[in-house]
Specification:
The chain has helices spanning about 45-60, 70-85; strands at about 15-20, 20-25, 30. It is an alpha+beta fold. It has a domain at about 1-45. A 3-stranded antiparallel beta sheet has the order 1-2-3, with no helix packed on it. The longest helix has 14 residues, at about 70-85.
């Protein structure tokens, strides 16, 4: 079995990233202008982002939506306010 190639594969092995720069296994740096799904718009390894994710992972990494998750409700409320779509449902 092999991974399904969603896109044409570029012969570049990205091994690290910081801000808007990524590096390949040969040490070449690239300006990361990729705009695909799951893009991190704040850049790679932003210190605040890394800190908050680490804090959350030290508490709990994942649990099912079959229980109350107050931070999800808060996120939905805030996104509703910002977007003006307060009557919509947020799927996470």
């Amino acid at each position: 079995m092999k991974p399904f190639d969603v896109y044409p594969i570029n012969p570049i092995n990205i091994i690290k990233a910081n801000g808007s720069t990524v590096w390949d296994a040969e040490g070449n740096a690239y300006l990361d202008l990729y705009g695909g799904h799951a893009v991190i718009s704040i850049g790679h390894t932003h210190p605040h982002y890394v800190q908050r994710i680490t804090e959350q992972l030290n508490r709990i990494g994942f649990y099912s939506n079959s229980v109350e998750i107050p931070i999800q409700r808060e996120l939905a409320r805030l996104l509703g306010e910002v977007s003006g779509k307060v009557d919509y449902d947020l799927f996470l």
